[in-house]
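Quick question about two entries, pasted in order.
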Amino acid sequence: MKSPALLDTDSAHLRQRAWRLYFEANGRLHGLLESNLKKNFGLSVPDYNILLALSEAPGQCLKMGELSGQVVYSPSRLTYLVTHLERDGWVKKVMSKEDRRSYQACLTSQGVRIVKEATRLHQETLREFLLADMTDEEISQIVRVFSALDERLRSRNKN
């Protein structure tokens, strides 16, 4: 039987290895998604995340503050990205009917088309490189791990 000191060292090594593998694989997958989206649609991953969030929203519109929280971008970064998506004709900023000081971002018909096409490519890439060899149980484990992490981070940010 290993001594407690060796177990702690093994555990620390395993945790460090888990972090490094997550960090490196995430970077590679993000780079592949970015490259595919740029090459095929002229979209960055942040652009795609905004379009996807809007496509899933009721009426395909969200208040800028809500959208910022959903895609986890600062308000200034979101404004910059939405301005570019608006210039490309994929998003339209509309003054809020309830509060004339705030705006909503709404998906245009062109935005609907591009997000549908980009989603097909995005899903194909994820299936090929992330999900292809995983069992439902392994995917469920990933969901549990990242749901718990997201919950901890959200509760920390509330404080």
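Here is the second entry:
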Amino acid sequence: MEFPLNLGLQKTGLPLIVTSGKLKNMCFLIDTGSTHNTLFDFVYEHFKDEFELLDCTCRTMGIEGHYKETPVIEATFNFEGVDYTSTFSVLDATDAIAQVQKETGIQIHGVLGIEFLMENKWIIDFETYNVKCND
């Protein structure tokens, strides 16, 4: 399967996907430079009942470059008719996300990092601006 990234790239210059299902219209940035998946804390607080809080923490470098101990959750979302489940660090990145929203007009709810891409065998093709899913 292939999914286009054109819309996010054209509107914001960022590779974005938008979820459907229970966690509808959540916007995730695909970030090949991120070792962990991240869900921003304002999203976690709003949808807390939809996530499973795991009994562990993760030491994560935030967008601002500072290390933080963060809770870890398991989340399931739907994208293009497929359910995906992965773990996410819950991170407060309010200032950085506000700046992205100010510059692009888009509110980002989290980041899908290398962990997610490898678990789900997603390959980003920047020649065709598609995500290829090899499942």
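Reply: The radius of gyration is 14 Å. The chain has a mean pLDDT of 90. Hope that helps.
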